Amino acid sequence: MAKSKQIIVKESEVELCKLRLKQPVHLRKRIDLLLVLKRSEISLSKLELAKILKINHNTAQKWRNLYFEKGIDGLLFYGRIGFKPSIISKELHLEIQARLNSPKDAFTSYIDLIPNKNIINTNFDNCFFMLYLGYIIIIIMAHAKILVIKETKKEIKNLLKQSIPFIGQRLRVLLILKQNEETGISRREVAKLAGVDPNSVQKWRTLYLNSGIEGLIKHEKTGFNPSVFNAIEHTMLETKLNNPQNGLQGYVELKDWIEKETGKSFNYNTLLYYCIRNFKSSVKVARKSHVKKDEDLGSSFKKISDESLKK
Fold it and tell me: What pLDDT digit, counting tens, does each position of 284-307 carry?
């Protein structure tokens, strides 16, 4: 089985070239296989044929065996007689296409697009319809939706100058949609130009269609959550941490101290990250000396030590 099969091509190279020109596109590769076998001075394996023709090696073996058993007529015989007629009527297809292209259609999923069988006399099941949608959705949904923006470019730019950064992203998307109002633009292209996520573009575009510019620039954010520590507690922590003689061995002792002083309970991680963020404190700091060390006695001891060394 390791040896390559020797296939003798009866037709001449000129006959094969003329025959190739008369064949449809999907059958020309089969003629190319015969041309490769005809021109090759050595026998070629199915893997070598597949590499030359850029096809699957099983396909190369199948075509080679087909020619060996049935000749050129068997190789060029194509059993398919065409596509089966679709059980989706033209009217139903156009109705689906209109719904998919409509930016104001409120269907929540493709299941909502399944028509009422009592109204449309078509014999098909829901599974087939979902497969049909999967086939046409690539063609229909690929086209960019044309969105009509009521506001002018100047009005959008003025709103953009006055808005906060959070709303500015939405208005930049709206401005890009306005600039491409005549030709249309996909959400992915808008997202790339605005530097945002495509899902955000879809969400804001739908928000504009349903609620207009007022709904687009409206938001419910009230700002950051208030701090757990008030101004007095902040000052107490700052004073304690900046005192070199505080005697603290870690944040557990700091937590116990602040809870004792204020009578309130605090989360350890909240206290930890609050101190790191506001006071640049660290979890572990090497202590060079005792907290109760007398600085004056320490300096006098250094002087006496220096004088004794000089003697």
Answer: 554 555 555 556 655 655 555 555
Burial of 231-268, coded b for 16+ CB within 10 Å and e otherwise, reads eebeebbeebeeeeeeebeebeebbebbeeeeeeebee
Q: Distance (Å, rounded) from C-alpha 246 to C-alpha 174?
A: 57
Query: Is the distance from CB of 211 to CB of 236 less than 8 angstroms?
Result: no
Nearby residues of 93 by Cβ (< 8 Å), 6 or more positions away: 86, 136
d(CA 49, CA 70): 20
Chain segment 211-249, per-residue pLDDT in tens: 888 888 887 665 556 778 888 888 888 888 888 777 777
CB 36 within 8 A of CB 53: yes
The torsion angle over the Cα atoms of residues 293, 297, 302 and 307, rounded to 10 degrees, is: -160
Q: Which amino acid is at 4?
A: S
